Amino acid sequence: MGKLTKNSKLASEKVETGKLYSIDEAAKLVKEITFTKFDASMDMDVRLGVDPRKANQMVRGVVTLPHGTGKNVRVLVLCTPDKEEEARAAGADHVGLDDYVAKIKGGWTDIDVIITMPTVMAKVGALGRVLGPRGLMPNPKSGTVTMDIAKAVTEVKAGKIDFKVDKYGIIHSSIGKVSFDVDRIHENAKEFVGMINKLKPSAAKGTYIKSVYLSSTMSLGIQVDVKSILD
């Protein structure tokens, strides 16, 4: 077993094994045991009692965090020329179509979200092999394929996130930054977990939300009492 660093030892001493912490306690503790020199992300992992292999138990959705993620989301809008000014005015970082399609085919993916229009999806669809594995493929269900480009860009920049249960039945997302105060973390967590709870598939049996963990980019995970988030 590798030797614990001084900070790792301090962190492990503060976390009580097997304890369920309230969301406020967990947020405060994660802030205390994060020693990175940068403003780390505050991450949440929600383990669900579903079988993602079955279509009727897939959980996917979007939610707008009231305080955003604290991250500067890089947005690419792939649109026709008549929509370019609208996209730039809304705050898109990159705007265009054919030139960016060519760049992406060449392997460029230095972006976080792609927003496009139904009328150009034929061109965007050809990028599936590059965008799909990176989770960047636009999807009407997540609001990233739309004619209302300005609204979509504004929402993403304000903290709208797309989430999906993975093959292990876990939903993972950043819900803020370590620099956020406890109240903001609490409110973002409540919105995030609340939306997941609303999306419970009718085919899911037994306990739906099995566990929730809060952590920072490089900290231990703290198990959160689900009731402290949903109540």
TrEMBL record:
InterPro entries: Ribosom_uL1_bac-type, Ribosomal_uL1, Ribosomal_uL1-like, Ribosomal_uL1/biogenesis, Ribosomal_uL1_3-a/b-sand, Ribosomal_uL1_CS. Gene3D superfamilies: 3.30.190.20, 3.40.50.790. GO terms for molecular function: rRNA binding; structural constituent of ribosome; tRNA binding. It comes from the Bacteria. Keywords: Repressor, Ribonucleoprotein, Ribosomal protein, RNA-binding, rRNA-binding, Translation regulation, tRNA-binding. It holds the Pfam family Ribosomal_L1. GO terms for cellular component: large ribosomal subunit. GO terms for biological process: regulation of translation; translation. Protein L1 is also a translational repressor protein, it controls the translation of the L11 operon by binding to its mRNA. Belongs to the universal ribosomal protein uL1 family. Part of the 50S ribosomal subunit. This is Large ribosomal subunit protein uL1. It comes from Labilibaculum euxinus.
